[in-house]
Amino acid sequence: MALAKLSDLIHKADDTYAVGAFNVSDMEMAMGAIRAAEEMRAPLILQIAEGRLRYSPLDLLGPVMLAAAKRCRMPTAVHLDHGGTMETIRLALDLGFTSVMFDGSKYPLDENIARTKEVVKLARSYGADVEAEIGRVGGAEGDYKSVDVLVTSVDEAVRFAEETGVDALAVAIGTAHGNYREKPNLRIDRLKEIHAATKTRLVLHGGTGLTEQDFRTCLANGIDKINIATASYDASAAKIKAMHSEKPEANYFDFSNAIVEATYANVKKHMQIFGLNGKA
């Protein structure tokens, strides 16, 4: 199937479902995600974060992701998650990614807007979509330094969306990347306010560790795209460890298949929570 655009997938979302965006770091994870999408008849976003590229170089993994997406029988977008440099963003676009995220949340608002506008201009020349972030989702994406949560301001979100024209906006409402050390305090009140004030599609980062009810409350109040990364990595690691314990003679291909199976199970579980069954 032809590659899908991010905007095509998330603009169909409503308060009954949100599209899942699943980080992958190898062929096996991509295969597992696709299997889940085809079984669920669900739209899919495959993505990789710049912070993970030291393990999975984009010029090697990117073509694998694109080939996997084209092979999938469900509409699938290929997305760069948390892009921090123009070099990486341009490479993703050159490879054929249908969308890129520029994460300028570490910059002051004016600079974040200015840098994001440059990314939007570049992406539009490729026919690609752009996601950006305002506020600060806590934790650490990839190998980046951990940061504290900075809840997104309604007024700044409105200004940012209007001035940049991004297709999707990641907002900080109390979530954090990675595994939570304590129960997150989700600011659903702030999410409702931002959703009411802007028409831009909203994204939830830091999904790993939230409860089913947390997810459903978020998608019911304006979230159209939900990112899942750590849960898939943790599931794959656990599956490999269990296989090694249960089958000491396991070989490379046994472990490879374990990653496929673990990713498939994790993606399917989250797709069910996100209400994606039959939404392709």
The percentage of residues in β strands lies in 15-25%
Report Rg.
18 Å
Bin the helical content.
40-55%
Distance between the termini: 12 Å
Q: What does this entry look like structurally?
A:
The chain has 280 residues and is of the alpha/beta class. The chain has a single domain, classed as Aldolase class I (TIM Barrel, Alpha-Beta Barrel). Helix content is 46%, strand content 15%. The protein contains 10 helices and 8 strands. Strands 1-2-3-4-5-6-7-8 form an 8-stranded parallel beta barrel, surrounded by 8 helices. The protein is globular and about 60 Å long.
How is this structure best summarized?
Helix content is 46%, strand content 15%. With 280 residues, it is of the alpha/beta class.
Key features of this structure:
single chain, 280 residues, alpha/beta, TIM Barrel, 8-stranded parallel barrel, 46% helix, 15% strand, globular
Write the layout of secondary structure elements.
Elements (H helix, E strand, L loop, with lengths): L5 H5 L8 E5 L3 H14 L3 E6 L8 H14 L4 E8 L2 H10 L3 E4 L6 H18 L2 E6 L19 H11 L3 E4 L16 H10 L3 E4 L7 H9 L2 E6 L1 H17 L5 H22 L7
Parallel strand pairs: 1-2, 1-8, 2-3, 3-4, 4-5, 5-6, 6-7, 7-8
